[in-house]
Fold:
Amino acid sequence: MPIPDEEMARLCRPVFGEALDPKTRASIAAQLEGVAATNRVLLPRLTLQAEPEGHAALLRRVRRDG
Amino acid sequence: MTDDLTRLPGAEIARKVRKGELSAAAAAEAFLGRAERLGPKLNTWIRLDREGALRAARAVDEAVAARKDPGPLAGVPVGVKDLVDMAGLPTTAGSKIDRDRIAREDAPIVRRLRAAGAVILGKLNLHEYAYGPTGHNIHYGDMKNPWNPARVTGGSSGGSGNAVATGQAAFAIGSDTGGSIRIPASLCGVVGHKPTFGLVSKAGCVPLSWSLDTMGPLALTAEDCALAMSVLAGHDPEDPSSVSGEPPRFMDGLGAPLRGLRVGHARRYYADRSEPEVAEAVERVAKALAEAGARVEEVEIPDQELATGANTALMISEAAAFHEKNVRERPGDFDPRVLDRIRPGLFVTATEYLQARRFRGEWAARVAREVFGRVDALLSAATPITAPPIAEDTAPLRGRKLAVRGLLVSLTRLWNFFGGPSVAFPVGSSQEGLPIGAQLMGAPFSDARLLAAVHQLERMGAVAPRRAPFEE
Structure:
């Protein structure tokens, strides 16, 4: 569920010095909901071994082993 | 005669200069003249450096005269996207904010180009802070497509794309975070190579997203891209994400035949999501590959949507982190459309960002195993549409009107998330006469193999690089 507009205005004010206009707030909320939705789906699929540097490790492994 | 020089591929210029058949100064004058004539009409350059270019060209000619090795890029006129530092010149990154930020030293890739004898003509226009796939720029002018100046070049390396397509530079340096080399390559009808992540240094380059950014060449031919990569690739201790080890031998691999190459045709990845004439052009490439003896089979890419979502979390968070200070202090100095893209990243949570990074490693390992364990290269369209009008925010796709920005990155951004190489190349023209681009993707560090495959397709005539006819 997207962040309610009132909450979005409250979040924006200290960062941008203003609450921004409703259209901009709605656009930010929609994008954040997309990120949250992705997170909800991928979270249960992560293994215990998954770590933030996993991609760098993969590149090093491919580099070493071909 | 002078203008004829600008029709030569970079590799041919280097060969002639090294043999003493062509002076680097003459080549530089020819390309500079063309850049001064065409550049302002297409908004190609942010700054030309005539004096610096001619000085470098004379040094190459002196080396040839003294029988010293002038380098593999001897006298090749090159343009550099203006987010790469060149000592003594501003690195604007296409912004108003950094208009006067003078670089103290050359970026390592500029040092490599200079040491190889390249003649750097100047700094190329780009989408502000490389944060946009169209080539719009309110500060330095919208970059125009040389096949139809009312159309976009694609971005963010739009100046790089139109410079190469019109012979203003033999090749150009671009950056690619979600498609910023391959999209202008596709829309302008040239070859663009997004290298394996970490293969080319990005020290001294303004970042968009540290974990996705790559630097690479756009050129008229795959051979020119390989030649550029043979100079650009290599470990750089100044870049934290630079990979160690010997770089691939790009030029040696160019003769590799297509026979036996295992090609995955990612039909379900692009066909229904592309305009019919784009999909048909890519089908013709698949057929040409098969006729040349490549083993072509259909391949599925796992969890595309999830990976795309995770990619977004990474990119918007990192872009917001880089720009946060200016977003807070100088929001009015950004292009409002770029500012709109930066703002959401300030609210992505640290855990969402880290989960996306955790997912990336596992997903990329799965793609490496399930896709590139079966095939050497994967074929798809590079962009689902040809160049849309500069004035339009939406474009038709199979009867629906969709946002141009989303369409242009829809087939490229996944490969930044994966981290392997991708080469975009021209595969024909639309009914409107606009270029159509395909791309080959590969496992990490298979860059040379992809460029060799495109080179063979060029030799067969299945890929026909040609300069845009723009002259006025």
In short: The two ends of chain A are 44 Å apart (CA to CA). Chain A has one domain: 5-65. Chain A has three helices and no strands. Residues 35 and 51 of chain A are 19 Å apart (CA to CA).
